[in-house]
């Protein structure tokens, strides 16, 4: 069949791109399907990836795509997958897209990642430019600046504040109407970290650069950036629909090498844990899952 593949990779972030490269080099017929909705598309710079520190995510993607173009067995598709159905008789998968295309594949690699939900919709205006969620990725650029920590869960507040304190000690915590325990308040006071438990009315700034946080009583607190703790969700239900088992923490269960509990279905990157990951770790997990896919195909066909 013209549209039949050894493996279809759903998602073209670092995990999917790495997996495609690995499978292409293993002479597998691969389709990489991506619709450009990866969550780091709003980021100005990506950090912590050796030889590419500070690169723009789109440039990283372009370079990876250029690498992949060297392997004729890889097809890249700008499409959106809307349905994956397993044929119980053949064991193959039918992949349907919103462009009314149908493809057949022996293996599926889910690398669609996750998306963020924020405690305030206004955060989107600043996210990726002056508000971030990962200090390891962006703490260096905000070092020693007056920063805001915006989070609502006390455990998350404590963790993020302690972590960011390594890069800047000029911190103010905003809980958006959620109270803090006496212990956390005392911990912050000892480090001269002020915490506001009032609801946040608005964020102010220009062109994505935060300048202040406005509270409900009318106080306007000057800040030059900061970190937020979003909640995360998987943007599709493919893993559930394909009967991949999930543990009590929401992590998709695997053998540690990308194989899920559903035959023929593999995962890589942020899709597995439902939480954020670095570019380097995601790319490494893409390589690992691709190696499992290639080995399984090899054994099954030998």
From TrEMBL:
Residue ranges occupied by any FAD/NAD(P)-binding domain in the UniProt entry: 5-150, 177-286
Pfam families according to UniProt: Pyr_redox_2 (PF07992)
Names of required cofactors: FAD
GO molecular function: oxidoreductase activity
Keyword entries, A-Z: Flavoprotein, Oxidoreductase
Subunit field text: Homodimer.
Record-given protein name: Thioredoxin reductase
Organism: Lysinibacillus fusiformis
């Amino acid at each position: 069949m013209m549209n039949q593949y050894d493996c279809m990779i759903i998602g073209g972030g670092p995990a999917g791109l790495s997996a495609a490269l690995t499978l292409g080099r293993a002479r597998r017929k691969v389709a990489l399907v991506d619709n450009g909705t990866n969550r780091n598309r709003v980021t100005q710079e990506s950090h912590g990836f050796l030889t590419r520190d500070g690169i723009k995510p789109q440039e990283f993607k372009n370079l990876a795509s250029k690498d992949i173009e060297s392997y004729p067995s890889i097809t890249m598709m700008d499409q959106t997958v809307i349905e994956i159905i397993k044929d119980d008789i053949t064991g193959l998968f039918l992949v349907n897209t919103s462009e009314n295309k149908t493809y057949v594949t022996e293996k599926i690699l889910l690398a669609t990642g996750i998306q963020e939900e924020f405690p305030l919709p206004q955060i989107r205006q600043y996210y990726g430019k002056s508000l971030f969620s990962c200090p390891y990725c962006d703490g260096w650029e905000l070092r020693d600046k007056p920063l805001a920590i915006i989070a609502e869960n006390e455990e998350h507040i404590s963790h993020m504040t302690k972590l960011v304190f390594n890069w800047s000690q000029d911190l103010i915590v905003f809980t958006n109407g959620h109270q803090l325990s006496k212990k956390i308040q005392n911990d912050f006071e000892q480090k001269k970290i002020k915490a506001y438990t009032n609801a946040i009315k608005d964020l102010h700034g220009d062109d994505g650069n935060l300048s202040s946080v406005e509270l409900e009583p009318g106080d306007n607190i000057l800040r030059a950036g900061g970190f937020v703790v979003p909640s995360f969700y998987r943007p599709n239900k493919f893993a559930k629909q394909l009967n991949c088992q999930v543990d009590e923490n929401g992590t998709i269960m695997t053998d540690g090498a990308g194989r899920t509990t559903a035959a023929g279905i593999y995962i890589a990157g942020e899709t597995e844990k439902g939480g954020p990951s670095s570019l380097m770790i995601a790319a490494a997990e893409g390589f690992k899952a691709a190696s499992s896919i290639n080995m399984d195909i090899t054994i099954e066909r030998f």
